[in-house]
Design goal:
28% of the residues lie in helices and 17% in strands. It has 284 residues and is of the alpha/beta class. It has two domains: 1-27 and 74-114 and 175-272, Rossmann fold; 35-71 and 116-168, SIR2/SIRT2 'Small Domain' (2-Layer Sandwich). The strands form two sheets. Strands 3-2-1-7-8-9-10 form a seven-stranded mixed sheet, with helices on both faces. The chain has a three-stranded antiparallel sheet with strand order 5-4-6. Helix 4 packs parallel to helix 9. The longest helix is centred in the first third of the chain and has 15 residues, at 54-68. The chain starts with a helix and ends in a 19-residue tail after the last strand.
Length: 284
């Protein structure tokens, strides 16, 4: 079956998205050639290092500023998923991304596993267990940038003087309680899973599509590089996410009829993967 045919036969699609869906918006991904981790050392951006090192926190603010300097906007892939949801064919999006572009495109049901980069929060003076324990202060990320521009290389919480961090999940930081359960519930209702722009290497998030695969639900993978789940996917598709999704959604909802080219085929029930761990996360 083609992607168009799979989408046309689905009334309960769930999208699982990673950094690759946002590269067409000008946001670099993490692991491909030229990605974030080719220019920054991920070992410097663990939760523990962020807490213990003012130098790491200073570099982190510079990196965040770099990400948002171009004011990224939703691209055709984000818009295509929002169209599917508006027409009642997409249950929602489970995303590893922190950029907020799904919501900006109009998506309503979005589970952000790794937090939101457009917001900062107090994590307390010296949290050591991978769980923020701040006073509850939060603000738009622009608040922190304004403080940095005013000469504060490491902005502190105005309420309790604790450490301020983006409201995202770093390596070694616990995921927000309940998010994995919400994502698992959504994938448990899916009759089709679209995995878009994810390397499927960051756990526990990367294990979530297997919840559907183990029920025999078709899995379609669209990613620039091969993934560990390619051999259990029903269909893998080459091409830019925006072009692939726009063509398929246009074909199903009305519009262009181009069919993305399959990269490979597989039996979604052929192999089992280990259950995701509860800890670990993606980056800055």
């Amino acid at each position: 079956m083609t992607l168009n045919e799979l989408l046309a036969g689905s009334s309960a699609t769930v999208a699982f998205t990673g950094a690759g869906i946002s590269t067409e918006s000008g946001i670099p991904d993490f692991r491909s050639p030229g990605g974030v981790w080719t220019r920054y050392d991920p070992r410097d951006f663990t939760f523990a290092r962020y807490v213990e090192s003012e130098e790491v926190r200073t570099r982190a603010w510079a990196m965040r500023r770099e990400f948002w300097a171009s004011d990224p906007q939703p691209n055709p892939a984000h818009l295509a998923l929002a169209r599917l949801e508006a027409r009642g064919r997409l249950l929602g999006v489970v995303t590893q991304n922190i950029d907020g572009l799904h919501q900006a495109a109009g998506s309503r049901t979005v589970i952000e596993l790794h937090g939101r980069s457009r917001e900062v929060m107090c994590i307390g003076a010296s949290p050591r267990t991978g769980t923020p324990d701040g006073c509850g202060f939060s603000a738009p990320t622009s608040w922190a940038f304004e403080r940095v521009d005013a000469g504060e290389a490491d902005p502190r919480c105005p309420t309790c003087a604790g450490i301020v961090k983006s409201a995202t999940v770093s390596f070694g930081q616990n995921l927000h309680p309940g998010l994995l359960d919400r994502a698992a519930d959504l994938l448990g209702q899916a009759d089709l899973v679209l995995a878009i722009g994810s390397s499927m290497q960051v756990y526990p998030a990367a294990g979530l599509p297997m919840i559907a695969v183990e029920r025999g639900v078709p899995l379609v993978i669209c990613n620039a590089e091969p993934t560990p789940l390619d051999d259990v996917a029903t269909l893998t598709v080459d091409g830019k996410a925006g072009e692939v999704l726009s063509a398929a959604v246009d074909a199903v909802l009305g519009g262009a009829t181009a069919t993305p080219r399959p990269r490979s085929w597989g039996d979604p029930r052929r192999r089992r993967r280990p259950s995701p761990h509860r800890r670990a996360s993606p980056g800055p």
